[in-house]
Amino acid sequence: MKNIFLLFSFVSLIVFACSPSKYAETNKSYKKQVKDFSKLLREYPLRDSAGLNYAPQFVGTINMSLRRPNYVIIHHTAQHSTDETLKTFTIKNREVSAHYVIGRDGVVYHMLNDLMRAHHAGVSRWGNNTDLNSSSIGIELDNDGFEPFSEAQINSLTILLDRLKKAYSIPSANFIGHGDIAPTRKNDPNWRFPWKQLSEKGFGLWYNDTTSVQVPAGFDHLNAIRIIGYDLKDTSAAIIAFKRHFLQDTTKRMTPGAEKVLYSLFTKYR
Question: What is d(CA 39, CA 207) in angstroms, rounded to the nearest whole number?
């Protein structure tokens, strides 16, 4: 049975590899854009980003490398199929993209080099970082926003996150959701996302058992939410984002139980 499965997988791979890609044109456009970026990087002498000439003397350093991501932002697509999302991310005037898309069946699509900037975070903030697009990898999970995430999808995500964490030395605390960094606009991944399961594998922080936690008198829950990373521009949105991530709760009122969870996390982040 195992040999039959391996043969089927091998044949499927050959068929896929030999089939004309329906994204051949957009793949061609991708290669052209990369070529244009390469040409820009090779220019000598350098042009500064504003097109000015305030530093006419150029001395090229030999100590350099490509910028590396320091965050992973997890999304749900809020669409109805992987194909729909792939199409969306290959339409020029949509101006949205991600580095990876993972289908419900667990198939992973790599859409952009990890070292390049995708348009996935939008207007967002985490701590003092106000440009998450420039420092993160975006991963989209095929999910309409109202359904659980499949086991195959989460298994593939876990493998991918492990590779990214090791490749770029991404801290455990820096695996977060789109709804965490843009609480007034986004709620993804939805409240059904298994953050606790991922945290047990080293992706994202989680709280300890709160049975014996004693929240001190005068504990400032808003300041604690800010210290964790949430933007307090809209305090209700920040509380909802925090509770959605850590309690699978989408209500905006702080409760004694939520304060215990928050205090446990606060002692880890501070």
Answer: 48
Pair 238, 195 in one domain:
no
* pLDDT single digits (tens) 86-143: 999 999 888 899 999 999 999 999 999 999 999 999 999 999 999 999 999 999 999 9
Q: DSSP strand E in the chain: where? A: 71-76, 100-102, 108-110, 136-141, 175-177
DSSP code string of 12-65: HHHHHHHSPPTTHHHHHHHHHHHHHHHHHHT-SSPPPTTS--S-------S---
Give the integer Cα–Cα distance in Å for 103 and 105: 5
Q: Which of 25, 43, 140, 151 is catalytic?
A: 140
CB atoms under 10 Å from CB of 43, counted, come to 8
- 127: Cα separation from own chain's centroid: 16
CA distance 210 to 50: 52
Residue 134 class from Cβ within 10 Å (0-12 exposed, 13-18 middle, 19+ buried)?
middle
List, for residues 209-245, the tens digit of each pLDDT value: 999 999 999 999 999 999 999 999 999 999 999 999 9
Dist. CA 17–CA 13, nearest whole Å: 6
Which of 206, 237, 261 terminates a domain? The answer is: 206
Beta bridge partners of 176: 73
Instruction: Determine whether 151 is an active site residue.
Output: no
| HSE of 252, CA atoms in CB hemisphere, 13 A | 7
Number of domains within the chain: 2
Q: Which of 77, 83, 81, 129 is nearest to 98 (CA)?
A: 77
Q: Are strands 71-76 and 136-141 parallel, antiparallel or unpaired?
A: parallel
Domain of residue 251 covers: 207-270
Number of other residues whose CB lies within 10 A of the CB of residue 67? 10
Q: For residue 126, what are its two tokens? A: 């985490």
